[in-house]
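Quick board copy: two proteins, each given as sequence then tokens.
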Amino acid sequence: MADGAAARGAADERPRRRRRRPTRDETRVAQAQPETDPLWWRGAVIYQVYPRSFADGNGDGTGDLAGLRSRLPYLRDLGVDAIWVTPWYVSPLADGGYDVADYRAIDPAFGTLEEAELLISEALGLGIRTIIDVVPNHVSDQHVWFQAALAAGPGSPERERFWFHPGKGEHGEQIPTGWVSDFQGNTWTRTTDPDGTPGEWYLHLFAPQQPDVNWSHPDVVAEFEAVLRFWFDRGVAGIRIDSAALLVKDPELPEVPAHPGPGEHPHVDRDELHDVYRGWRAVADSYAGTRVLVGEVWLQDKARFAQYLRPDEMHTAFNFDFMARPWDAKQLRESIDITLAAHGPVGAPATWVLSNHDVTRPVTRYGREDTSFAFAAKRFGTPTDLAVGLRRARAAALLTAALPGSLYLYQGDELGLPEVEDLPLGLLQDPMHFRSEGVDPGRDGCRVPLPWAGTSAPYGFGSGGSWLPQPAGWAALTVTAQEADPTSTLHLYRDLLAIRRAEPALGDGPMTWIDTPDDVLAFARGDLVCVVNLGDEPAALPTHTDLLLSSAPLEAGLLPRDTAAWLRTPA
């Protein structure tokens, strides 16, 4: 693969001292004791599974639990500690499953509740915990509560579980607020009464098919705590909390101030949210073994962000600042410093992630002129150099895996998959695309099903095609092809995760920056040093006794541009 050699040492840089890595059998034994470590989450490697696109077990073109269960050995051999499975519940799929109709049932497209229980058990037997998504800000418009609210009419107790409003103006014809949806457009939809006349409006911070629930209502609080218990009873090790900072709304429904102060936004980061998560933490802590709460918290204010990580609230939250930064040494170091400084006072570990099911894949993003990420900036036809992007993505993998805290990997990043940016317009499904009136390409490009084997689509994903088409040029990116190539990105990930597991200094713990030129990042984790060259010229390596791993071969003993290395330093 172009720019894809994972060097273990050039001729003039052969390892002089190397600790033996654990064999796969030894790793399995260590992984198979998951309940013995109450702090497992502080340095865990967690693999995000988007089940619709992971593996298809029944040949209908959609990934499912049967496919995921069949690929658990692949995840064990990759070396992950846990999987995070995005919503697998009954859903009309108006937003890829984040519009939940029933939190206690598996969508038939994915399988059954019994299969989910088997997956949790089988994964645990391989030393892999399971984290699931809970979506507490909204439900599907097909949820029994919302259907009851529509049937009951204005002023009913059923409507009090949501945010219904008669509307402004003489006849309620004016929208209640000018709040802007995260999916663009307004946040209110007007209902139609049984006689065909316009009715009340209801709030949805996302798509109209996702009505927001009212977290000041005791039924909502009780229901979601019961949902947590339902899944903890079935053995899940944690809950990823979708849109975690959006649940609580100002009951007065004011407009968003031009510059809201801390806690002043009418529907983001309200102070009352912390009572919700204290209640959830009490539920989690009532179970044996550590059941973790992981928040999706998009906040610029790092002090406010850290409040969610106090000892009686969430265990961890996603660090999106690092993911959104450009491929620039100063910017990345600043983000690392800010992140660690924010987590320090509350004693929580940081999380590191390069992508997810919402974000342009690193291989594509890092090959662009603007290597940062912002939802508002996504456009069709943005050029990218995939060779440059792959080289940087491989280096970024070593960088993130060496940072203190836990590591999240999105399915397919270990294969170096690019974003699929030429999907036929008629096949796009993401509401972000449609609500932008076709300007935003949406998120389908990072959700294309994985290639497992073979020379043509569906590349072993299943026997019956795939719900989104895979590119014709993915034969070299399949798992089977990369397993046969020791310089592949898959082998790079397997090597770095094996080293991370074997090195006591990696994962949770301290780090120390090392003085370097401006375009180079270097830091120490015990006697292991991570060096990343983000400059244009090859860089000298710090004094070391062993080159453990590099994302590309060294050049005459120097670290090439857009390359990272892990080194052992003298004792």
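And the next:
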Amino acid sequence: MEKVERSLLEPVGEVNFRSSKWSWESILKKFQLKVESFFLIKGYLLLIVGFLLGRALILSTLAPFSLPFFAAVFLIKRDRSPLALVGLVAGAATVSLKNAAFTFLVSVFFLVIYRISEKWIKNEMRMIPFFVAIILGVGKLAEAFIISRQLSLYDAMMVSVQASLAFILTLIFLQSIPLLILNKRRQLLKTEEIVCLIIMLASIMTGTIGWKIYDLSLEHIMSRYLVLVFSFIAGATVGSTVGVVTGLIFSLASVSSFYHMSLLAFSGVLGGLLKEGKKIGVAIGLIIATLLIGMYGQEGGSGNLTITLLESAAAIALFLLTPQVFTSRLAKYIPGTPEYTSEQQKYMRKMRDVTAQRVAQFSNVFHALSKSFSQMEVKPGVDEHEREMDYFMSHVTEKTCNTCFKKEHCWANNFKTTYGYMEEIIHEMDQNDGEVSTKLSREWDKHCTRSKRVYEAVGQELTFYQANQKLKKQVQESRKLVADQLLGVSEVMDNFAKEIQRERENHHKQEEQIMEAIQAFGIHVEHVEIYSLESGNVDIEMSVPFCNGHGECEKLIAPMLSDILGEQIIVTSEECAAYPNGFCHVVFRSSKAFTVETGMAHAAMDGGFVSGDSYSTMELGLGKFAIAISDGMGNGERAHYESKETLQLLQKILQSGIEERVAIKSINSILSLRTTDEIFATLDLAMIDLQNASAKFLKVGSTPSFIKRGNKVIKIQASNLPIGILEEFEVDVVSEQLKAGDLLIMMSDGIFEGPKHVENYDLWMKRKIQELQTDNPQEISDLILEEVIRSRDNMIGDDMTIAVAKIKHNTPKWASIPVTKMKKRA
């Protein structure tokens, strides 16, 4: 019985608890949506704001708020302007019926003038403030004339003041009203928009002047509450601005509230400074400001300290009851707040994810296209071969056997024999350039009475057949090349999408540890920014005081970072301060394990100025170094253009991230398809990884390369035709692990085959390399070039180019300085 009760009670309790929780949250959310819909979407907030602005006065007589507010609402949210007009008239009626009538009449007059001039107004936003100022000024002049039957200088001055205020308020309301009624808007608030919003809120609160609750002024409570909210959200700068602007508006509305501006501004500063203490800290700031300014006000006879404290206490109570959701939502719109920064980062993260997704989709498209082209490379089967043979024979027999009297005898009675002979004839003529063996010719002459006509027909059809087969092969090769290129592009775009999605990590703890370690050593560092701590790819920026050219960053900070991070760190760029009290901005990055020192030597044929050879050394991304030599066909400008074009294409394609084989095949297809002329170029490419000194050699029609390791000489060779001869070929890749101290020697055919009266070029070149007494790359390239020219009796019979590279350990210039190592590393 106990087990039954437990099994019944436990699930029921759990279900009830969860359902009540979710129902409570859903009720709150629904209530919030209904409130937003009632005030924002349906526009009843404009009714309340209009009521308060209709009551608002400046200097106890001027009411410049009504018409600017109505004009701004009419221009921005025309369908809600009747609600605004009702609120304005009702608010003005609480002051006097004369004010209500005047508000209604000037609003109607504005509508009439706007309808009349609507046709020729081009820019409504620019003209509306002028309309409002003129209409309100004319209306006030008419009112003064009707009442007193004369116009004094005081009346003209007050009318001009009210018209000027209306002009300015219209501009302010046009910027601030969208912040109240438009729910979906951009997430960026300009400083001018924030000030306009504050002025509008202060103007609205002036409508509460004269309202009291137990002798406590409602305008004082609301103004202090407004300062508390903005100080808590945005700090002292915005808090003091809100206090000054709000106090100024209240001072214009009531001269007796002039000291209140000091209280609001001071409380905004103190509350913003104490915002680290959350709501309690901001509230303490208001209490301190109230005590100080309140005592000053009491001495001047402007108020009672007890009432002032009670008003501040009421504002603090409202502030403490304000939900966190409201303040967080408002903070998203104010620049400089953590919520605003988080919102901007969320937006940027969303844009980044969308971009990465689109790039990944393009990558998938290219991958699918590559796959579809690859699937089309189906080798012809037995059935297709038999079908092609049947078509071939049908065309031959159509020209020869259809009109022959022995057709029935050959193809009906002796089909297999005739078919076999025809198949052998086609095969032999295809293999022997149209010739048939004597034995087969003798047998076929006995079998067929029109043997010569058959030979002629087979030869003609064979020409078409061979052209068709060649075309099919070219199409297949082109498809395969396109498939490889599309796959390469797909891989590049996929890697790019992954790089986009790789978000910068936060390294706050590591930045603090680095600053503490360096400052404990006695070096002042202003700022540390870590972008990457990935092994082999460290990226750190620092701001350090002006060093007067002593090289502290290279001699001290970089060695300390090397010890902290456990790998060699060097200064890659340094921007020194322009004046002694400034800061230098320095970038520290990982150094490579190996470096490459190169030397080049070249000579044009017959000592000319233009060589058909081209060479290039290029620093690629991800720590790779490339050396390339290209030899254009022949000599002179055309050969130089072809070899140079080959290397330029290679460099651009490799820097895009496409794999080496695909890059070379792409260059081959471009050079072979862009013109019908016979233009060929060789390519000798060496890719060296500077992290582990591994090398890949890709040779297309080029001469061998050599590696000298001590007294040992290693030959690197691959067999490929030059670029541009074949539309499709396989690139041979030779891999070799290099070591520190190795010498890599690459050369064109003018150097390798240059020596005169030499039978074995390999042995001659190896012997010359072994006899070298220097390891300087430039000296080696000069010596070998000179030796080849001397062997030809000082004649340069071909373009000559030689490239020598020396692999060296990247020895740090400064030893690491031992400090406490970081406990955690990203």
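Board note added afterward: Confidence is low (pLDDT under 50) at residues 1-22, 299-303, 822-826.
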